[in-house]
Amino acid sequence: MMSKPNLAGGCDPSATALECVRALKPYQPGKPISELEREYGVRDIIKLASNENPLGTSPAAVAAMRDELDGLWLYPDGGGFELRGALAARHGVTPDCVTLGNGSNDVLVLLCEAFLAPGREAVFSQYAFAVYPIATQAAGGTARIAPALPAGHAQALGHDLEAMAGLVGPDTRIVFIANPNNPTGNWVEADELKRFVESVPADTLVVVDEAYHEYAAPLGVPDASEWLGEFPNLVVTRTFSKAYGLAGIRVGYALSSPGVADIINRIRQPFNVNSLALAGAKAALDDTGFIERAVRENADGRDALTEGLAAMGFSVTPSAGNFLLADMGEPAAAWYEALLRRGVIVRPVANYGLPNHLRVTVGTAAQNRRLLEALEQGREHDAATR
Ligand SMILES: *Cc1c(COP(=O)(O)O)cnc(C)c1O
User: Fold this and answer.
1) Across the strands, what pairs with 125?
2) Ligand 1 atom 1 nearest Cα
């Protein structure tokens, strides 16, 4: 007779998972609207927690995806021919430089799987995007984390490229730079970034994550894809989740030398980007009017929200993205709860080592006002109960 597994006796199979995986702290996503409804019974909820586009999705992209519904019994084009071609044309590279991902998260993970292992290192900054430490550790690699720029610096909490360069050694295989960074909003300038890429050994990948590029470009934040021809070790990642308003369909991409793209291509799932995503992203790319409006309204909202938060006495980190990092001046958990009770979901960032901060996505003008009102009500309420 087969014996039953005895968990108390130490036969829990989860204990046999890789140590680097067992030690992982999972990614903490923003609270979904449906969950807040279930847990708190609140209605009329706004979510400013995941840097989604408050304008929604380009109607042209929605129409393209609807047209695609009739063909869902077929596998998608695993090579992503049309979308890769359009992206290559957009960036002035050949299609063999473009790798599509199930969100840019997918290509970040694939890079770690292909280039990291025990004994190999990834360098990134304190407060850098949470996926870098998770993907590094899951691949068995070692994270080397540079302290962020100090208080008083114009980009306090941001990437200290000199400190990062100091951590690059013979075992460093990947350097991650989010420009601008999430959750801090900080950015690095073109000349500084280019000097950094030049300083890194030619066999070490520099991954510049430009998830918020559309929002950041008007502030002079560089498009590192323009340097791909100069640096075969440069990888630039982009996403359709943020300004393009397609977070739910999961599509992003990496731009790199054809050699690096060929490597990633060997380990990606053959159909990692679904047919709706391929069609939606292609149409979204062509709808430049939608992006222009999203960028314009975000800049206005970011200014209004910065001003409103500052007027309430909360200091805000300068941001090139569609979100702001606010210092609440005390543990932010009570503020987070106070906002949830008023139907406003924002993002606590204690998991980043920032327990006094909240990250808020720039919403529509009406949503931004609602956030400021909810904060005002929270403050008037007894601070102990918020
Ligand atoms: C949101 C985000 C991403 C990835 O999002 P996907 O939806 O997986 O494309 C990557 N990097 C940063 C810095 C982000 O904020």
Assistant:
1) 146
2) 211
Distance from Cα 5 to the centre of ligand 1, integer Å: 40
Residue-level length of the chain:
386
**Ligand 1 center–CA 24 separation, angstroms:** 19
53 lies in a domain? Answer: no
Q: Identify the H or E element spanning 220.
A: none
Whether 163 and 179 share a structural domain: yes
How far out from the chain centre does Cα 287 lie? 22
Nearest-CA residue for atom 13 of ligand 1? 182
SS3 call for 196? helix
Q: How far apart are CA 158 and CA 139, in angstroms?
A: 26
Ligand 1 atom with the shortest distance to the CA of 241: 7
Give residue-wise pLDDT tens across range 167-197: 999 999 999 999 999 999 999 999 999 999 9
For residue 153, give the amino acid letter: H
Same domain membership, residue 293 and residue 277: no
Please check whether residue 346 lies inside any domain of the structure.
Answer: yes
Residue 161 lies in a domain: yes
Residues 343 and 199 in one domain: no
Expressed as residue numbers, the domain containing 318 is 16-47+289-384
Residue 359 Cα to ligand 1 middle (Å): 15
The answer on 315 and 253 residing in a single domain is: no
Q: Is 104 in the pocket of ligand 1 (CB under 6 A)?
A: yes
Q: Is residue 247 within 6 Å of ligand 1 at its C-beta?
A: yes
Q: In the structure, what pLDDT confidence band is assigned to residue 234 with cuts at 50, 70 and 90?
A: very high
Quote the pTM value: 0.95
Task: Please determine, for residue 28, whether its predicted confidence score (pLDDT) is greater than 90.
Answer: no
